[in-house]
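Protocol step 4 of 6.
Sequence for Restriction endonuclease type IV Mrr domain-containing protein (Halosimplex rubrum) entered exactly as in the expression construct, tag removed. Do not edit the line below.
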Amino acid sequence: MKHVIEVENGDAQVLTETGSGGLIGRGLLHDRPLAEYVEPAETPRFVVRNRKRGFVVEEADGGASDEPVETGQVAPDGDHSAAALVTDGRVLFAVGRADGDRTRSVPLDEVVDARTEAGLRNATLVLDTVAGAQYRFPSRGDLDAVREFVDAAAGVWSRAERHLEAAEETLDRVERAFEAGDVDVVLAAVGDVRATLDAARETAASLDGAAASVDDRIEAYRERLRAYERRAYAEQAEQARERGHTRWDDDAYETAADHFERAADSYAAALSVDADRPSDESIERRRTNLDAERERLAAAPLERAEQAVEVARSTDDTEVAVTWWVRALERYERLRALDWGRDDPRFDGDREAVRERLATVAEALVDARCERARRALDAADGAPPAAAAAACDRAESSLDAARAVARERVPDALDAVEDLDDRLAARRPDPSATDRDDTDDTDAATVVVPPEAADGDASDDGEGETEPRSETSVEPDGDAGTDGTETDDGAGSADSEWTLADDGTDDEWLSAERTATSTAADGSAAEAVADAVADASEAEVVADAADAADAVLGSGTGDGDRADDADGRDAEDDSNDGETSDERDGGDGVDTADGWTPAALAGLDTDGFRRVVAECFGATGWTVDAVDDAVDLRARAPGPADVRAGVLAVHADAASTVDGSAVERLAGAVERDGDLDAAVVVAGATLPRTARERAEDTGVAVVTPGALVDELDGHEVSVPRDGAER
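Step 5 output, structure tokens:
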């Protein structure tokens, strides 16, 4: 009997032997041949035999398992023998017995040591396992080749197993990171897992059995990995998309475009991963929405710049016009600088056309600032020296700003600036006159008088008498005359009735103030205040006049409160036939002189615009019920028909960001809400064409800025003072 047989090509005769050995020899196994124990993925390498001793299992020191080891000797009967079948995946110990063969399998990935021990007549193959068992198989053959193969194969299996365990641990971390929302950690780990699995496959490639076993496990790991990878890419796209919208809201257009590009790349990467979740249809739908958002982002800078031009052109208020021309210039500047140097610009607007538009806007800004200076100089004509100095300072500030823009962008406009400069130099009052005004001391209360009022009160040459608005003239020492006549004439009278107050702001009026006194019994000061408020055309002047009214009307009482008459109305109401100060100045408004305008709407913030829309609905008879997440306002129509509308209030700055999907979401919310019958969008500025077209398709009513202004004016809705331009 040959004791060590090297199996070649799996066709060794020993693999097929069964039965007893007859009168002289011994058979190998009783039940079935060794070949039937070989798995399809295994490749037999050696068969080691012994006749009588079989194999022995003992408990080794240092085992890593707490499971008890089944020890003892398993020997063949007299008609059979024992064999150790060595494959590329395990060592199978088989012992033939008439009452049934005995087998024990030892996977090579559990073998921690393979060695041989020499005896007097034979050697023993010894295998120590990780579970703490020791298998001993004696044989008279040469076991060196068997030991070398088992030792090398066990090393291959051990290294491959370590790679697989590392991959599984990393996959567990990937799962925890995904549940925590750390998709970047997930995607960074994906590469590590894939590299570890590749290393396991490469390690096992030298053994067919090991390679097949490792491949089965690797495929399970890869399927699990692909599931997390696809979901992580989809989530990464959503996060990048959200960051893009945040940066878009901050007007950081290039950064927003970068985030949207990363979102598009992540969606594409998600589709390239072979997994079921999210579905291809879901990802494609998100990509379509992202493409639409990228198109709107590309158009947003140009639309916002054009919106600023539209607002600037629509207002008759010089201050508002200057503010919006400045914004338009800044927005066109930003548009021109976007994607500078890129071969494939991502934003709408031809660079040459934007450059020409910049020149046009700059020229309009210079014109607006010159007009501001011109009005200041007109107000200075004929005004007392202190008031004239304030007006000239205002004109100088406007001209300096206009000159800076003209030099940089529209040199042709410098002539107009220089002409006004010459007029300013000729009109500026003698400093000694204003110094005399500064030395005047009065304890009387002060009333802010706007440039138009100052101009109207002064004579053409600045030296005539100044008509006070009240019937009581004011002496330089603050005592009121009692005869209703003027106390002084000429420039001296004008100088004594004006003082200069710095409002502490840059590029704004240094307000000229006229001094006046009042008593509780005399309503002339209140009338002067009312006239000043009625003449005011700027929001800041109106606010100052209202504050001054409180001070003047309260100065006649000991505790500073207004004195009430017998009918319970205050002195100011009496002096104006019961008309309240709010009614006289047009209510709390951005521009009480002009009433509602598109520029006034543009000056409102989100909350202010929503309040104005609610007031407008209320003024027209609707009842505003509530505000919730689905819509900004819920309004119920008057009359027997109970019609309820869901209202979306879009302030001016947000108008350019409203798209068709936003309109569809509003229409869908109204349709799903059983308490709403109609959807309405109230816009503070013109909506994009796509939004208007989608509104028409979905039956959503759109209230344009012009229509809203007409309704607000028609129903006398007050302009909120706190809605001043931002």
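Step 6, annotate. Residues 21-25, 436-593, 722-726 have pLDDT under 50 and may be disordered.
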